[in-house]
Write a structure and sequence with these properties.
20% of the residues lie in helices and 29% in strands. The protein has six helices and twelve strands. Bound molecules: NADP nicotinamide-adenine-dinucleotide phosphate (NAP). NADP nicotinamide-adenine-dinucleotide phosphate is lined by residues 47-49, 60, 129, 132, 153, 155-159, 177-178, 182, 198, 222-223, 244-248.
Length: 266
């Protein structure tokens, strides 16, 4: 039996997520059953997809249950095991509870080598966000030399990898981010050719016309909403769109209309 602290979903947020949506609980976990592993959390990733999961809106992942611990991609240490695949002392990643300790059935866990990189890198550049970027760029956007690739949320966990992969593929890469410092980082460190601040630029069409004079051949879409509409209107013939997410819309109670002139995809 182990004493643990966990965070449960106390109520479903409307608009901004506030502290009263959560409740901290002290629980005593039962002794391990056959096949179970007890994991102590070391790092928990807080990701945008968690916001839609806090509601009952249809999403690409099922809703969190009220009064149950939320879960998220995590790295932890096995502190006890009755599963032959995992031993005490192993470092693992997988979906763990928002909790100090999780009793886990071992399904979907992956052992990681703590010597190869800081543990938290397995939740970022060595983990799900980077795999997401790799899939969208390699299998959907397929940018190449002579083309313009656009990436929204250019410096986020997914976007910064998507932008670098598009650049490595030889495309001219343009992105947007939420402040000047991030935009400078995108160009200086991540190799973007240009990045605009979506908070100080208000006419997205005009800024895209300036930064993407040849139009846009591929869009790795993380933000949705007005930025996406402006990008969509500038997609070239045979343009590709990896619609990875729409973070600007996750708090909207009602879905917003799609981009104008949808028939241009024909
Ligand atoms: N389909 C999948 O399997 C999958 C997997 C992973 C992620 N995703 C999606 O990919 C997107 C990025 O995820 P991430 O892990 O990179 O997230 P992240 O590291 O948390 O970055 C998200 C960034 O989005 C920007 N943003 C937030 N609200 C915005 C708004 N209203 N308008 C414009 N920009 C806004 C912010 O950057 P700025 O301050 O720079 O604007 C924020 O830092 C999300 O939409 C997520 O849901 C999808």
């Amino acid at each position: 039996m182990t004493d643990a602290v966990q965070i449960v979903l106390a109520r479903r947020p409307v608009g901004d997520v506030t502290a009263d949506c959560f409740r901290e609980e002290k629980v005593t976990l039962p002794a391990l059953a056959d096949g179970q592993v007890l994991i102590r959390s070391r790092f928990l990733s807080l990701d945008p997809y968690m916001r839609p999961r806090m509601t009952e809106l249809r999403s690409y992942t099922p809703a969190f249950e009220l009064d149950k611990p939320l879960t998220g991609g995590s790295v932890g240490e096995v502190v006890d095991s009755r599963n032959p695949r995992y031993a005490k002392g192993d470092t693992v990643m997988g979906m763990l509870n928002w909790a100090s300790h999780t009793l886990h059935d071992g399904k979907g866990l992956r052992k990681i080598d703590p010597a190869i990189a800081p543990l938290q890198a397995h939740l970022g550049v060595l983990g799900m966000p980077a795999f997401t970027a790799w899939y969208g760029i390699t299998h959907i956007c397929k940018p190449k030399a002579g083309e313009t690739a656009f990436v929204s949320a250019a410096t986020g966990a997914v976007g910064q990898v998507a932008g670098q992969l598009a650049k490595l593929a030889g495309a001219r890469v343009v992105g947007c981010a939420g402040d000047d410092e991030k935009c400078q980082w995108a160009v200086r460190e991540a190799g973007y050719d240009a990045c605009f601040n979506h908070r100080t630029e208000h006419d997205y069409g005009a800024v895209l016309d300036r930064l993407c004079p040849q139009g846009i051949d591929s869009d790795f879409e993380n933000v949705g909403g007005k930025i996406f509409h402006a990008v969509f209107a500038r997609l070239n013939n045979f343009g590709r769109l990896a619609f990875c997410g729409a973070i600007s819309e996750y708090q909207d109670a009602k879905p917003i209309a799609g981009p104008a002139k949808m028939f241009t995809i024909v």
